[in-house]
Amino acid sequence: MHAIRIHQPGDPSVLVYEEVSNPEPGPGEVRVRLRAAGVNHRDIWVRQGAFGAFSEPLIPGSDGAGEIDALGPGARDYAVGQKVVISPGVSCGRCVFCLSGQQNSCPHYRILDGTYAEQIVVPVQNVVPMPSGLTFIEAASIGIPFVTAEDFLTRAQAVSGQTIVVWGANGGVGLATIQLARIRGMRILAIVRSNAFVERLKQVGASDVIVWDGKALLTPDILNMTGSKGCDIVVDSLGQISFMQSLDMVRRGGTVISVGSTAGGKIQMELGQFFRRRLTMLGAYMGSSAILPRILTLFARGTLVPEIDKTFPLQEARDAHIHMESQRLFGKIVLDI
Ligand SMILES: [Zn+2]
């Protein structure tokens, strides 16, 4: 089969399209002939070596969709040819967290890599039936952003009538948050860096859109828009350049969700600002395995709609990463395999 492999961490040029041997499914595993792979910011961290160097060449990519093309011994419930979506969270399946549906709190939890390829072998619990009505490209765009956003909105007890602020609203997690907050009946204040996205964000569900120059303090705008109260929840995927503002714009007793640090991860804060104002800080990283099948149903019904920015052939994964790093995207980048 063909795959994109990384031999050593670096810039997009380390993504090499090459021929590799076909993986064979072992006991309890299935092999999927992938037709599409979603590109996530995590893939850039992997490529750059943020999770460590590689002992052997690594195939990046965590989201994907395709058809089962081989079953390992004991892999029941699926048939060759069945269309499936990859569920990217891997956990032990036995600990108290796994058994209570909080797989992403399992001590052995990890996100799998390997979807930038024509084939992938995964445990049978890491595939979910793909509903009809979705294309492979659409199905591959959903996993990480929607599972993550649904998980943190549930943990933050986000409910109808609340106001939520979303930084980086045009990215994958940003748009997933907006769509899921919209169906919860929330008021959504979306922050973006470009005028070009304002109308589309409103179509997706943003109540108001703030175009940010990357420097201005937005707290006064948020206070103005919320009758001086501040927002109930703020979703921060940028980190260093936005997090202190997030603490300021949330109401007393509100929740600040940290779901990434695409603009750097170092902050310095005065703890009084946190405890005296009774804030909740919530770290978000993927979600329960139960979420993806439920979310896919909402896509199949048309309650949620995939937002695809651009597709690239698998061979052009480098260009896909360059486009992602430009941050001039609206929605997901997907590799067509
Ligand atoms: Zn576990």
Automatic annotation (TrEMBL):
GO terms for molecular function: oxidoreductase activity. This is NADPH:quinone reductase. Keywords: NADP. The keyword DNA damage does not apply. It comes from Sulfobacillus benefaciens. Residues 10-335 form the Enoyl reductase (ER) domain. It comes from the Bacteria. InterPro entries: ADH-like_C, ADH-like_N, ER, GroES-like_sf, NAD(P)-bd_dom_sf, Zinc-ADH_QOR/CCCR. The lineage of its organism: Bacteria, Bacillati, Bacillota, Clostridia, Eubacteriales. Pfam families: ADH_N, ADH_zinc_N.
